[in-house]
Design brief:
Elements: H1 17-23, E1 31-36, E2 39-44, H2 50-54, H3 64-71
Antiparallel strand pairs: 1-2
């Protein structure tokens, strides 16, 4: 797909709606620009929270409650 856009006096350009929809670009998203040999490459900047990226990646040998009980020396006595 080829599209054209005009750069404003402030250097702003409007990304065609079809491309925004195809690539999930929304208001407030950040874009990355890089100079390539044959032109400018534009990519959607995706940030991933380091802790969120690890969610679900650690497999525990028991439930969290069982591990806490074991560290405390057995089940809590009420």
């Amino acid at each position: 797909m080829t599209s054209t856009a005009t750069i404003s006096e402030k250097g702003q350009v409007t990304i065609p709606k079809e491309l925004r929809e195809d690539f999930g670009i929304r208001k407030g998203d950040r874009l990355e620009f890089s100079a390539e040999r044959d032109g400018i490459k534009i990519r959607k900047h995706v940030t991933v929270d380091a802790l969120e990226a690890l969610r679900g990646s650690i497999k525990l040998p028991a439930s969290v409650d069982e591990l806490i009980d074991e560290m405390r020396g057995g089940p809590a006595k009420l």
